[in-house]
Amino acid sequence: MTENVKYPAVIAARRQSKDRLRRRRAEQRFRSYGMVAVAVSLIFLVGLFATIFSKAYTALGQTEIALEIHFDEALIDPEGTRNPTTLARANYDALVKISLGKLFPEIKDRRGRRALRKIMSAGAAFELREMVLADQGLIGGRRTVWLPASDDADMYIKGLVAGGLQHGNRIDAQQAAWLDKLENREQLAQRFNWRLFMAADSREPELAGLRGAAVGSLLTLSICLVIAFPLGVMTAVYLEEFAPRNRWTDLIEVNINNLAAVPSIVFGLLGLAVLLGFLGLPRSAPLVGGMVLALMTLPTVIIAGRAALQAVPPSIRDAAFGIGASPMQVVAHHVLPLAMPGILTGTIIGMARALGETAPLLMIGMVAFIVDVPTSPTDPATVLPVQIFLWADAPERAFAERTAAAIVVLLAFLIVMNLAAVLLRRRFEQRW
Amino acid sequence: MLKQSLALAALAAVMITNAAAARDQIRVVGSSTVFPFATAVAEHFGKTSSFKTPVVESTGSGGGLKLFCAGLGVDYPDITNASRRIKTSEVQRCAKNGVVNIVEVKIGFDGIVLANSRKSGLMSISLKQLFLALAKDVPVDGKLVANPYMTWRDIDVSLPMSKIEVLGPPPTSGTRDAFVELALEGGAKTFPMLAAMRKADKKRFKAVAHTLREDGAFIEAGENDNLIVQKLETNPAAFGIFGFSFLDQNADKLQGSRVNGSMPEFEAIAAGQYPVSRSLYFYVKKAHVGTVPGLRDFVAEFTADKAWGPDGYLADKGLIPLPDAERAKVRAQAAALANLSM
């Protein structure tokens, strides 16, 4: 280092290079901070997904037991009238019990038979009933039917709870032995849990499904979209393209921005007071849920809409005016179509938020146990996040994996919606 | 476009008026403790009768009674569940809104348990010791002082060495109310000093007996009992307070503590030996019987032995049934739609 002292130019160059080095290091540090931030959030995300998926995947299977059912006419339809009411009221549980008894003829005492019945779901009888109501030709015949095992048996077979004598387990040593025996005889198997997607809610975990909640979510979001989208777009267009700038429009703008930050439960209270109390709309209905969520989504749509309209360059408007278009034609033919991708993106993101809401729905009675799948917006219904909330609260152990599965389904919906937003932007976005 | 939206609006209006004019579905609101049982009955009722499955909302006992008492007619619920008895003030509020004839149905008991992980030892505790462990102010040498006990052993040599750490529900929960009333108040009464205070100044006694520690020994763990169960698994030193059905479902991992010499087990709670248990009820609006189809049948389904009996499907969900004689009596009263008598 000492020999260079005589040459100031070299020193200057070195200094400069030192300075450059310092700046480069600073930049590298800055980049690595950013990478660390991304990595940490990715780790959180992966951790979250891993825990949810690892809990959820067992819900895809459901333990079922093959029973040879004798659809005994004497039990189902003793008078032979084939009257649907008689068929609907028949004791199908007896069919299940008889067929179980044949599998284990050595069990004679009442206690043992009761314990044996408990390895099958209470829903087994309901499924036989549905089968007979759908096809009366079954009556009198025999058929091997795969029927759901009870949630306790299912948890035991999946190895999620221990079975045996100690600790008062819900599956005792005797029942565990029966289940193991059935499994060895291949009369018991894990089969695809179609009920999780095709059935509505139930208090029996092995019968519970998401269809009711998914349809409820769909109806609620449709109402929300039908209200929020036109109102939001019209508001945005008027405020952006037509309204004069004065104190009133400023006031409106401030209020819209405020509305976007209001906690969602407040909209629920509003819905309770105005929609249910004053207008007398039905409780627990997707119609009311959609209206409440529309109030919540409206500011998002307006703000996104205004931003998208602002992004359309004035030259487009000027050109349209130049060839003699009226203000309405300018907006309808030129500005709005160009702004539409941005508006749609904002709307989809707003809808995705609405899909995940539970708090406002609590106040209007949508946090409820509803078995019948809704068919119209005024039928009682619940939505996916509420279903997750209710299942997470249930005491039955088997609901834990179903809660996780429901979360995965909700996530899938959200990912599809957000992906649609991204694709729309990519596909139609114009740059000027 | 305009025509279409007008038609849509007209359609919506028709649907709304239809929905308001008649209701062919029973509506139930009320306690979250009764919710698992009421929903099970609703589902069985829907699947075995020709009626629609009732809609059951979980609003809490107080919230349910508020909705129930708001008025008569299809806009108001037909049944409300409660994990406590209806109060005189609530009966009055009902009467003010025209709801005069109410049928009370007691459906069974719910035990509230103090439980810990099976990795630790079983605890035997008395209500008195439980009060000393969890109350904010406790009597020491005839004076009320801030709770000085840090470990269970500080209270009594028979108790474990570990730090007092109890996870329980927040004040909004009915389970918390019942626990405070049955366990803490029960323990407080065993002190002569507090018993005297109860006679002299009831308000002050309640304030002492109903206030839980705020120094970290009692932790509010949220409304979700499953969360408490999970936390107990990961922290074997901690205890949790929750409903019997959650212990029943997690018996492979958790054990209920013996309270006043009685284990929190099905038979002991049913026999009334276990001290921390409460009665569960539902209330039916008599004026709606006949208007809302299936209401009488729903009550019959709930009070049938296949549902609420010792071998019924509700027992399987964790409901502790009433004794045989009382069940017969309540069923007869319910079938006759006998009016509530306070």
Describe this structure in words.
The complex is a heterodimer of chains A (432) and B (342). Chain A contains 18 helices and four strands. With 432 residues, chain A is mainly alpha-helical. Chain A folds into two domains: 61-193, no CATH class; 211-428, MetI-like (MetI-like fold, Orthogonal Bundle), CATH 1.10.3720.10. In chain A, helix 12 (264-278) packs across helix 13. The radius of gyration of chain A is 32 Å and the shape is extended. The model of chain A has no long low-confidence stretch (mean pLDDT 89). By secondary structure, chain B is of the alpha/beta class. Chain B has 16 helices and 13 strands. Chain B has helices at 2-21, 35-48, 61-68, 88-96, 127-134, 152-155, 174-188, 192-200, 202-209, 225-234, 244-249, 266-270, 295-302, 305-308, 313-316, 324-335, and strands at residues 27-30, 55-57, 79-82, 102-117, 124-125, 137-140, 143-146, 166-168, 218-220, 239-243, 254-256, 258-259, 277-285. In chain B, strands 1, 2, 3, 4, 8, 9, 10, 11 and 13 form a nine-stranded mixed sheet that branches. In chain B, helix 2 links the parallel strand 1 (27-30) and strand 2. Chain B is globular. Mean pLDDT of chain B is 88; it is low at 16-21. Classes of the chains: A mainly alpha (432), B alpha/beta (342). The interface between A and B is large, with 44 and 49 residues. Strand 4 (368-369) of chain A pairs antiparallel with strand 2 of chain B, so a sheet runs across the interface.
